[in-house]
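hi!! sorry for the late reply, been swamped w classes. u asked for the two structures so here they r. pasted raw, havent cleaned anything up. first the sequence of the first protein and right below it the tokens
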Amino acid sequence: MPLLFSYLSISSHHLKSKLTESGRQLFRSLIQTFSVFGFFNPDSHGGNIIIDPEKKLISIIDLGQVEQFEVNGMFSSDDRVILTQFLDSFQRKDAKRLVSSMKKMATNKNFSTKNLEKVMSSILSNKGLPLDQSFVEIVTQAADNGLRMKGKFSFGIIKGLIVITGEGYIPKDEMKEVIASEFKQVVKKKFPVFLMQSVRGGSCMEFMKRVFSY
């Protein structure tokens, strides 16, 4: 399994401090490992991180929960595209597109899209809901409304984002910036896929504006 975070240069051994360079590099590396290679470790809490300040080395232990996601070429959709659409819709508080991306994560189809859109809209509009709790509510309410999400998404990437947010490796605003940056890279790599999906959905011009706004 390729790991980008094996030989990071770090400036502090206080990993859980929100302002340390090590936390920033760790978070960025976890996201990049997913966006580039399709691997993600949802169990990256502080107890599974070892730092050697003398060698300036971060090591990840206990990789038993690492998930491998589908990675295809430029012209084919894959799990990175689905998650990118999910996170972009979440950040833009677009319940309809959020549910559309969640349907691609589901193992079943026997649920009400309209009901789910209503529930997701309520979650996204709750300004007082912390970022990690928002992810918890999305997964919980999806299940309560009949959408069974594939484990690699619910207990993989989304659980991992909840863990990372809770650990405070990086300030939440900066976390959003890193995710947006990786979204931009995925869009560049998979541009034909995103463009064709936007054409089919009748939102080609909106998509182009969003791409060039990053």
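now the second protein. again sequence first, tokens right under
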Amino acid sequence: MASLRMTYLNYPFYLYILTNKLRTVLYVGFTNNIEERVPEHYRQQGNPKSFTGRYNCNIPVYLEGQEFALPGIAREKQVKKWSRKKKEGLINSMNPLWENLYLKIFKRWPPIGPHEKSSE
């Protein structure tokens, strides 16, 4: 059986959806390095100039691998326009318990290195 890391991390690009602890906010993004991008969102906690920081939205609950950047960016724009209900359906289709995918894949949370400080 393939590990979660291998299952999720076999694409060069990712559409992702983040939420906060209470699951009241959803953020759709696109990246070529999910392992680095989630910690960037995490470090923004409390930053009023950042959407994810303002709403403490840094828990990845959905990942969608993309082979190429341009179609992936188009997909990101498409999903961003969806209603919350439709985004929830997408999340539920692959992660019905809304588990923290960063923790499941990389086996650590918070997603920061030992030299960085957690705001929790």
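hope this helps!! also noticed smth abt the second:
Helices lie at 4-8, 34-43, 51-54, 69-80, 84-94, 101-106.
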